[in-house]
Amino acid sequence: MNNISLRKLILFIFILLLSVGSVNAQIFHKNPEKQLFGKTLGRKKEPKVKESRTVIRAKRKQEAHERKLNKDYEKSVRRSQKRTIDIQSPEVQKRMKQNKKEYTVRDKEKRKKVKASTKRAGEKYKE
Q1: Is the pLDDT of residue 123 over 90?
Q2: 90 three-state secondary structure
Q3: pLDDT digit string (tens) for 18-60?
Q4: CB neighbours of 31 closer than 8 A, spacing ≥ 6?
Q5: CB atoms within 10 A of CB 96
Q6: Distance set, CA 26 to CA 17, 18, 32, 87 (Å)
Q7: pLDDT digit string (tens) for 77-120?
Q8: How far apart are CA 54 and CA 70, in angstroms?
Q9: In angstroms, rounded to a whole number, what is the distance separating the alpha carbons of residues 73 and 80?
């Protein structure tokens, strides 16, 4: 009888050790790759560097200067176009204005057509 109880005790301890080993294998980790291989390779965040006030001021000044140049350029183009029309005879001026109107209408229709066709094509490839 002592022999049977000793066998049961050894069997119980053996089963207990096996169950504890399998429980350790099932521990859940959020990222198992990180657990296996350590830190994952990824893009490292670059520290934010705040620019000085003089640099910010210089950039703003440069942007304002560029806006002024663009505005002056557009103004000179309009002035040049107006002068081109003004130096023509009245009949030619009339014809030029009519051509401009026709061009704007054609351009508007073309834009509508392109927009509609690209819209249909975009719908075709939506998932």
Answers
A1: no
A2: helix
A3: 665 555 555 565 676 666 666 656 667 777 888 999 999 999 9
A4: 40
A5: 14
A6: 15, 13, 11, 90
A7: 999 999 998 999 999 999 999 999 999 999 999 999 888 888 77
A8: 24
A9: 10
Q: CA–CA separation, 116 vs 109, rounded Å?
A: 11
How is residue 52 written in tokens? 């000085």
Please give the model's pTM, rounded to 2 decimal places: 0.43
Q: Please, is 62 exposed, middle or buried when counting C-beta atoms within 10 Å of its C-beta (0-12, 13-18, 19+)? A: exposed
User: What confidence score (pLDDT) does residue 55 get?
Assistant: 94
Q: Enumerate residues 6+ apart whose C-beta is below 8 A from 29.
A: 35
Say how far apart CA 4 and CA 16 lie, in whole Å: 18
Structure tokens at 55: 């640099």
CA 71 to CA 65: how far, in whole Å?
10
